[in-house]
Design a protein that fits this description.
This protein is mainly beta and 233 residues long. It has 1 helix and 15 strands; from the N terminus they run H-E-E-E-E-E-E-E-E-E-E-E-E-E-E-E. InterPro entries: YcnI-like_sf.
């Protein structure tokens, strides 16, 4: 079932394939279509810029995740160990700054449709807007590991947005806070002489890309560079 997102993401990527590589293997903006209709990585003032955010891998935790009896069920990544400590992406959100919401700040972004995922738009208290894509089931999660035995290290996904850069943003670099949400399953455990039984549960871990670092061990933002584009006028 996990081939579904990969197939859709590949179809989306064909629009821009071969133009340029993303600057990062994490979350980055790849070339989009400017208001003048040009395919470029430098966008223009206008209301029809389409940009794509590429998610290059899943989430990891800064510390091991343990069950109620202290057993490690999800390891923090180990340097040099390919694929260790990574969870599939279940949701992805992008916060669009007011400089990309048109001159009046009310031209809200339009998300690309991805089969198997639903999208929502939230207007925040600071007047920015956040678009979130969420897989409708775990079968549609963006897989970190090889897809059904394919010879690849991990799958990637492209999430498209249509935005409107406001007047006065020419030559500016516009950054977009992005957050991946991944799910880690903790199996049920049976009671022992020294520990109680516990039901199966699921915990969320995150990868946040916003140019900041915090101490939350479930939010792996040690390499937190927010994806950005340049407006050329």
């Amino acid at each position: 079932m996990k081939t579904k997102f990969a197939a859709v993401a590949t179809a989306t990527a064909l629009v821009i394939a071969g133009i340029a590589s993303p600057a990062s293997a994490h979350v980055s903006v790849i070339p989009g279509v400017s208001a003048t209709g040009n395919t470029t990585d430098a966008l223009t003032i206008g209301k029809t810029n389409t940009i794509y955010f590429r998610v290059g891998h899943g989430c990891s935790s800064e510390t091991d995740i343990k069950n109620s009896q202290g057993k490690v069920v999800f390891k923090a990544p180990v340097a040099g160990a390919t694929g260790s400590g990574r969870a599939d992406t279940h949701a992805f959100s992008v916060t669009v700054p007011t400089t990309a919401l048109g001159d009046a700040g009310t031209t809200y972004p339009r998300p690309a449709y991805i089969p198997g995922w639903k999208s929502t738009l939230k207007v925040n208290a600071d007047k920015t807007a956040t678009v979130t894509w969420t897989a409708i089931s775990r079968d549609f999660d963006l897989p970190y590991g090889p897809v059904d035995g394919a010879n690849s290290v991990s799958a990637f996904g492209d999430f498209g947005l249509r935005v409107a850069f406001a007047k006065g943003t020419a030559t500016q670099k516009i950054s977009f806070k992005s957050v991946q949400t991944c799910l880690v399953d903790i199996p049920a455990v049976k009671a022992t002489k020294t520990a109680k039984a516990a039901k199966a549960t699921t915990v969320k871990i995150y990868e946040t890309w916003d140019d900041t670092v915090d101490a939350n061990p479930t939010d792996n933002n040690k390499h937190s560079t927010a994806p950005s584009v340049t407006v050329i006028g």
